[in-house]
Amino acid sequence: MLVSLKPLMEEAMAKGYAVGAFNCPNLDSIRAIINAAEATNMPVILNYAEAHSEFISMEEIAPIMLYYAKKATVPVCVHLDHGATIETCIKAIKLGFTSVMIDASASDYDENVKTTAEVVKLAHSVGVTVEAELGHIFAFSDGETSDKFNNLDDVYTDPATAKDFVERTGVDVLAIAFGTSHGVYTQKPVLDLDRITAIKNAIDIPFVMHGGSGLSKDEFQTAVRNGIRKINYYTYMTLAGGKAVKEALDKKNADEMVFYHDIPMIAIKAMQENIEDAIEVFALKK
After folding, report:
1. What predicted TM-score, i.e. pTM, was given to this entire model?
2. Can you tell me the distance from the alpha carbon of 47 to that of 19, in angstroms, rounded to the nearest whole number?
3. Sign of the dihedral through C-alpha 69, 222, 144, 103
4. How far apart are the C-alpha atoms of 144 and 152, rounded to whole Å?
5. Which stretches does DSSP call E strand in the chain?
6. Cα–Cα distance between 11 and 153 in angstroms, integer?
7. Predicted confidence band at 138 (pLDDT cuts at 50, 70, 90)?
8. Which of 84, 151, 195, 252 could potentially form a cystine with 178 if both were Cys, beta carbons 3.0 to 4.6 Å apart?
9. Proportion of the chain in helix, strand, coil states, percent, rounded to 5
């Protein structure tokens, strides 16, 4: 069933777990995510990242995301991930997304507040929830690691600033920076998991973890226990699909025929298994 982010976060807050938010740049990933959600009987978030527009446009994939969300037997939120502009968020809302993220974290603080508050005003008027980001989340794919910065306090989310930001914007959920990284794991992240608790003590709203690359099960679950309620997850899910396809093709003889329609089914199965494991870790079930 299609829902906004609000009821998912309310239940996660009440029960102390995190909901998985999985990026879906194609039909195969959507099917894997919904299959995993139904197999685990857990709510899920379908993410469309603006960065994935090179694979498929929002206009093309939105109806497919909404179709699968509506027919799912578990609650599903359709969410815009890392929307770079107000216009992108408006487009997502018009297409039927039930939640949007406005990411103005690269702007100066006052501009981030102003932009986020404007999106919140627009989105709330039509019952859509809003996520924003405060601080800097590293990106392994861009060669970023924590040792690039002289003072991590300058890039990690400050509790007092988070309180001010939420009060001034009215944002529903907040993505916070405490050392996690996007992309393929190349160096062990330097985490400040206690920072989550400190931010929670300042402002008790649902927090989002972006960039879980390289984290152990214990680190994921400590983050959840400390207050993370939404976890974005994509890199290792899609790598699982790619690895399964490669292994299947490597097993074939050189003269053996390969039918393309078999390839997505291999990837879907592998991604579903990976997503099921992630959902259960985030829900503290394993």
Report:
1. 0.91
2. 12
3. positive
4. 13
5. 2-3, 19-23, 44-49, 76-83, 99-102, 129-134, 138-139, 173-176, 181-182, 207-209, 228-233
6. 31
7. low
8. 195
9. 50, 15, 30
Is 209 buried (19+), middle (13-18) or exposed (0-12) by CB count in 10 A? buried
Q: Which of 81, 103, 158, 172 is catalytic?
A: 81
- CA 170: distance to chain centroid? 20
CB 275 within 8 A of CB 28: no
Tokens representing 202 are 């300042």
The pLDDT tens digits of the residues spanning 267-279 come to 999 999 999 999 9
Helix (H, G, I), strand (E, B) or coil at 33: helix
- Cα separation, 82 vs 48, whole angstroms: 9
The full DSSP string for 214-281 is T--HHHHHHHHHHTEEEEEE-HHHHHHHHHHHHHHHHTS-TTS---TTHHHHHHHHHHHHHHHHHHHH
- Map tokens 């870790």 to a residue: 281
Q: Is residue 250 annotated as part of the catalytic site, yes or no?
A: no
Distance of CA 148 to the CA centre of its chain: 24
> If DSSP codes are grouped into helix, strand and coil, which group holds residue 44?
strand
Report the C-alpha gap between 71 and 283 in whole angstroms: 23
Q: What's the distance, Cα to Cα, between the start and end of the chain in Å?
A: 26
Residue type, 57: S
What distance in Å separates the CA atoms of residue 159 and residue 176, rounded to the nearest whole number? 10
Instruction: Write out the two tokens for 175.
Output: 């993505």
Task: Name residue, tokens 């988070």.
Answer: 162
Instruction: Say if residues 11 and 48 touch (Cβ distance below 8 Å).
Output: no
In 3D space, the residue among 236, 176, 183 whose CA is nearest the CA of residue 209 turns out to be 176
